[in-house]
Q: What sequence folds into this?
């Protein structure tokens, strides 16, 4: 058990979190639900920034990068939800298959 | 270490339930729980500043925006069949996991270096000062963009005013 530390557990959790987010992005069709999956993916990214900074002995740099990720992710979420609301106004649905006009 | 493992496991459970939930509002609430548990995990890892920001922004602001958006767009059921077959999605996920393990596992058990002297405050305000300024600019861009997206078209507004008169 010497190699297993708090950092390796966090790294495994990052793997699992990113996988859950990716699976959700692949199977979900509701536009707001897609943003939820993107948020799950971004939470894995935030955690890996802090873990990598701590493992390399540079916790300050890792934390500041994690703050950058949080800010960028929040802005992306707000814009995506505003877009989803406009899509709902224009098309009357949140289904991503209905709004694609390429398949007609 | 046990506490951290428990917190991370419940965070994963919240994330899975957020994706599995049929109602959008329930999904948003599970996401808020996931965010709060992530903040706790970050505080245990020795980054309480990031944890506080994640708790206030991720669990607070984003949840409020989600509930606002769902209340406008309507809580329609999300039980569509998926675009790609689920088996194909699982295979892709396993391939992705293999890639991650191949790239990152050699480093997972490497010795943890001792923490350097640099603090978060110095990293944010001195070394990455330009990035911080750009983040402020990005927040303003986000606000202006969402205002532009959510604004009513001018024609519709004037037509509604005429109708009211």
A:
């Amino acid at each position: 058990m010497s190699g297993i530390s708090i950092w390796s557990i966090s790294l495994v959790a990052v793997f699992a979190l990113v996988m859950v987010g990716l699976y959700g992005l692949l199977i979900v069709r509701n536009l707001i639900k897609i943003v939820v999956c993107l948020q799950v993916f971004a939470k894995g990214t935030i955690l890996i920034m802090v873990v990598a900074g701590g493992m390399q002995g540079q916790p300050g740099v890792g934390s500041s990068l994690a703050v950058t990720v949080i800010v960028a992710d929040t802005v992306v979420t707000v814009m995506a939800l505003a877009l989803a609301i406009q899509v709902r106004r224009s098309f009357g649905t949140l289904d991503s298959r209905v709004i694609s006009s390429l398949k007609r | 270490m046990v506490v951290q493992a428990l917190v991370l496991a419940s965070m994963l459970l919240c994330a899975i339930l957020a994706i599995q939930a049929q109602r959008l509002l329930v999904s948003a609430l599970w996401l808020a729980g996931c965010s709060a548990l992530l903040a706790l995990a970050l505080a245990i890892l020795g980054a309480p500043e990031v944890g506080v920001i994640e708790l206030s922004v991720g669990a607070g602001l984003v949840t409020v925006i989600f509930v606002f958006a769902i209340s406008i767009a309507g809580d329609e059921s999300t039980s569509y069949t998926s675009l790609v077959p689920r088996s194909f999605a699982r295979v892709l996920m396993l391939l992705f996991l293999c890639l991650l393990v191949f790239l990152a596992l050699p480093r997972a058990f490497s010795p943890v270096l001792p923490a350097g002297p640099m603090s978060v405050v110095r990293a944010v305000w001195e070394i990455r000062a330009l990035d911080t300024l750009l983040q402020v600019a990005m927040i303003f861009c986000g606000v202006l963009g969402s205002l532009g997206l959510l604004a009513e078209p001018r024609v519709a507004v004037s037509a509604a005013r005429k109708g009211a008169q």
Notes: Chain A has a mean pLDDT of 87.
